[in-house]
Design a protein that fits this description.
about 60 residues, 434 Repressor (Amino-terminal Domain)
């Protein structure tokens, strides 16, 4: 799944560790989502969308 997570994180000046802490996940999970190696669960996708104030569709797109 393609996503804009890295771009959104960088806009706020957050590192992967800071984003992971805000989402209550491991830094490795953030890295895996950003690189497309892992698709987040639906609850995590909603949490990410709320954190960035965007819709899930604005952050994640099906390839």
């Amino acid at each position: 799944m393609k996503n804009r997570l890295k771009e959104l994180r960088a806009e706020r000046g957050w590192g992967q560790a800071e984003l992971a802490e805000r989402l209550d996940v491991a830094r490795q999970s953030v890295n895996a989502i950003e690189t497309g190696k892992y698709d987040p669960s639906l609850p995590l996708a909603f949490k990410i969308a709320r954190l960035f104030g965007q819709s899930i569709e604005a952050i994640f797109e099906d390839r």
